[in-house]
Amino acid sequence: MDKFTKVTGVAVPLMRQNVDTDLIIRIERLVDNVGREGLGPYCFEQIRFKPDGSEDPDCIFNQQPYRGAPIILSRENFGCGSSREGAVWALKGMGIKAVIAPYFGDIFNNNCFQNGILPVALPIGEVEQLADEMKASPGNARITVDLENCQVISPTGRAIPFQVDARRQHALLNGLDDIAQTMTAKDRIEAWQARDRTERPWVWL
Questions:
Q1: What stretches in the chain show pLDDT beneath 50?
Q2: Is the dihedral of CA 103, 65, 173, 37 positive or negative?
Q3: Which of 17, 30, 145, 173 is close enough to 98 for a disulfide, judged by CB 3.0 to 4.6 Å?
Q4: For residues 24 and 65, what is the distance between their CA atoms, to the nearest angstrom?
Q5: DSSP string, 146-170
Q6: Is 117 exposed, middle or buried (0-12, 13-18, 19+ CB in 10 A)?
């Protein structure tokens, strides 16, 4: 998994409540055998494209300077709905590094940390102000999300602190998902297994 330390870039203000995983990626795309690396072009396809397959110019993802933005701003409950991990794979495939919203769907939130995307929870007032600052200076505004210092730097230079679980912060800074974190204790696990095989051999039959 890629390490996440800091990202600076345009933030697309997708100011909707309850952006669910079905909107992020349709379930059909997860059985199309495109693989997790191939989901990016289908991310948010229900709002990015018209029924004839052409881009919808009214969709903010298709407008400059938001096309290709690495950060999403959104309202409450981003990533709600089904537990599909493909939603995070699709966001990653579209180039998203961080999502800033008041709160997230629980499973989506966990899936982000397992795939190198940082979900940042900020009060709705802060998110709205960030969105306003982005819109006030299109083409010039940038947001920085700094995981090492746990702060978001707004386009006008405001430092907004956020909280993240220390274990998850360490894992993301070092590019470790749950399996990789477990493997950092491989020597201790193998030592325990060897000792337990001696003390309780019947358990290992």
A1: none
A2: positive
A3: 145
A4: 20
A5: ETTTTEEE-TT--EEE----HHHHH
A6: buried
